[in-house]
Amino acid sequence: MADVTFPQRANVLIIGDFNVGKSTLINYQRTKQFDNTIVPTIEIEPSTISVTVNGKNMIITVKDSPGVKEDSIKYGRFVFPEFQNCAVIVFVYDKTHRPSFDQITYLKHMVDELVNRRMECILVGNKCDIAKDDDVTFEVGHERCAELKMDLFIETSAKKGTNVEELFREAALRLKDMELEFGSTKVLPESENTPKSCQC
Ligand SMILES: Nc1nc2c(ncn2[C@@H]2O[C@H](COP(=O)(O)OP(=O)(O)OP(=O)(O)O)[C@@H](O)[C@H]2O)c(=O)[nH]1
Ligand SMILES: [Mg+2]
């Protein structure tokens, strides 16, 4: 049984390019297994995820989304309204696919344009199990996180499970930090005492 649950609007939204591993990350956290039969996501799909934080079991709602289509009216219609219904956004790219990394800037600008309140943003470089030297490096990802004024950078593997629990724990911690303010449009103070980066 959960020790801690959150109000309805306290969601985590996962966004990013096609094929970067958004659904696989969620599935790994739910099952602790890698499933390579996951099909492309075509609509917003909420899941309930359990994560242990300071010895307590927290239940969070994580919303999966279809891969981003720049300038797509359909993408905008389905995904952009979800920005208002979450407190934490997880931006995922594939370390082995540079265009998915470049998409992050576009997505962060859309969030900044559409959301007029504090939002915790986590940047995730996924597929670190297969990344090679010439792919998007940790340093480049970390730099982009700072440039875009995001709150945390982490590299993961949804295949090996590397940093997957850590990612969702960080998301849950940030939800807890903002718990009293969900739905508010006022600007909140910056959170303190949260780690800013995590090496894969
Ligand atoms: N090697 C490796 N493969 C991964 C990893 N994460 C996901 N994959 C594979 O990448 C492919 C895409 O994964 P999905 O989880 O469907 O990606 P997605 O971002 O949800 O894709 P869309 O729903 O189409 O936007 C699948 O073949 C996964 O098995 C990872 O960390 N390492
Ligand atoms: Mg998917």
From TrEMBL:
Gene3D superfamilies according to UniProt: P-loop containing nucleotide triphosphate hydrolases
Keywords: GTP-binding, Nucleotide-binding
InterPro entries: P-loop_NTPase, Rab, Small_GTP-bd, Small_GTPase
PROSITE patterns in the record: RAB (PS51419)
Keyword tRNA processing (UniProt): no
GO MF term list: GTP binding; GTPase activity
NCBIfam families membership: small_GTP (TIGR00231)
Protein name listed in UniProt: Uncharacterized protein
Organism of derivation: Mytilus coruscus (Sea mussel)
